[in-house]
Design goal:
This protein has about 425 residues and is α/β, with parallel strands linked by helices. Helix content is about 50%, strand content about 10%. One of its GO terms (biological process) is DNA damage response. Its EC number is 2.1.1.-, 3.1.3.-.
Length: about 425
């Protein structure tokens, strides 16, 4: 299966890259921290080499031995996996759910550094994320320019025109999700050209297109809430780099068009799946735009810094986003996060990993309704904006999946197809 290929081939490649990154930074660690830095680097590398060996030889998954705040939850989850196997041996790298062991690998990478001060805050994926951002420069300029031009007359747009612009920026955010470094095992995957040019041609590749439903929800919420409370949209982020910029533009559009009064962003509390957004990536991206020597890029950066200062944009991370649990157990495992999401009028879940966690990463029949696959996870109306990079997909029309499968066996994992899939949470 694709899962087996991922664990067998892609994950060891990622670990090899992480080890190589630490090697390359040896001098920097020495300059900053002296011998202590070099010793810490050696220990981290030895920990990661051992991890790679466990993975490649299909050893049992072992409990976490660190003192980090989420360790107990991870170890409880391992017990849960042991109980699932009905005495068929210990959960091991090739004999366990893909989602679980993949998350577990990233958590172990985090432990390798977190347990080895003074290099405990080093993000082994930071360079790749920065490179993705700089290589996507032309696309970022095109998007910021388009958006700043749009803002000049946003007050004069009628409802139909606003809807068109929302759909455009949603699609840019959708296809921005192609730029995923864990998918290419860290190889370059930047957005080279302006995505706005090709949107029309990409429509047929959106397998479930619920953009109309999103629009109705936002417009109706605005009408109902005309006088009273704030309209809040939450974006559960995926990749840094170009995708993050496209998410920030979408968020700015929601505010500027008065479709939302505040936007809450949710990132990862540790480096995750190579290119996922952390707080550092989020702030770094806005700083890069601010200081760019391109007028419209820097205008975006300045405005976005302002949104954060005014509190109309809020960034947060929660330990739950980097646990192996699917979202149907959020209310039980992270009731505080679930309660926070319940305050939202719309949750936008970006990317493939969020989709896998929304649907329990099961091999569903293609026609199973999205609502059913969510398994009672309904804190608020939600929408998945995702390009397909793993073999789980629900909510298709009868025969739709089979038809594509006949001509494109790799359709579910190539990133060529996407969904904007909505659930009203009733």
């Amino acid at each position: 299966s694709f899962a087996y290929f991922t664990i067998k081939d892609r994950l060891p490649q990622i670990l090899t890259r992480v080890i190589d990154t630490l090697h390359r930074h040896k001098n920097e660690f020495f300059e900053e921290h002296g011998e202590k830095g070099v010793e810490a680097e050696k220990r981290a590398i030895s920990f990661l080499s051992k991890l790679r060996n466990e993975l490649q030889t299909d050893k049992p998954v072992t409990p976490l031995e660190d003192e980090l705040p989420d360790a107990a939850l991870w170890n409880q989850y391992l017990d849960y996996q042991r109980n699932l196997s009905n005495g068929n041996g210990e959960p091991s790298w090739f004999q366990s759910p893909w989602l679980y062991v993949e998350c577990y690998m990233y958590r172990r990478i985090h432990a390798a550094l977190a347990q080895n001060p003074p290099i405990d805050n080093f993000d082994v994926f930071k360079e790749g994320k920065a490179q993705n951002f700089f290589e996507s420069q032309e696309a970022v300029i095109a998007l910021c320019t388009y958006f700043q031009e749009l803002l000049k007359n946003i007050k004069d747009l009628d409802e139909k025109q606003l809807q068109e612009e929302l759909f455009k920026l949603l699609q840019v955010s959708l296809w921005g999700n192609k730029c995923d470094l864990s998918f290419s095992a860290g190889e370059g995957s930047s957005q080279k050209s302006s995505p706005l040019q090709s949107l029309e041609n990409m429509i047929p590749y959106i397998l479930v297109n619920d953009m109309e439903k999103l629009w109705s929800l936002l417009v109706n919420t605005k009408k109902i809430n005309a006088e009273k409370s704030n309209i809040r949209v939450d974006i559960i982020l995926d990749n840094a780099g170009f995708e993050l910029v496209s998410d920030l533009v979408l968020a700015d559009f929601l505010l500027s068009s008065k479709l939302a009064d505040e936007v809450h962003f949710h990132g990862k509390s540790m480096p995750w799946y190579v290119s996922d957004t952390t707080k550092h990536d989020f702030n770094w991206t806005i700083k890069q735009l601010q200081s760019a020597n391109h007028m419209w890029m820097s205008r975006c950066g300045i405005n976005w810094e302002g949104n954060l200062k005014k509190g109309v944009w809020v960034y947060s991370d929660h330990m739950f986003w980097t646990l192996p649990h699917d979202f149907s157990s959020m209310a039980e495992v992270a009731p505080d996060l679930y309660a926070d999401l319940q305050k939202s009028n719309l949750l936008l879940f970006k990317g493939d990993l969020n989709y896998r966690k929304l649907t329990g990463d099961r091999k569903w029949e293609y026609t199973v309704p999205f609502h059913q696959a969510l398994n009672k996870f309904h804190p608020a109306p939600l929408c998945s904006v995702r390009t397909l990079k793993s073999d789980t997909q629900v909510g298709l029309k009868p025969g739709q999946g089979e038809k594509i499968q006949a001509s494109e066996p790799e359709w579910m994992v190539s990133g060529k197809y996407g969904v904007v899939q909505f659930d009203a949470a009733v």
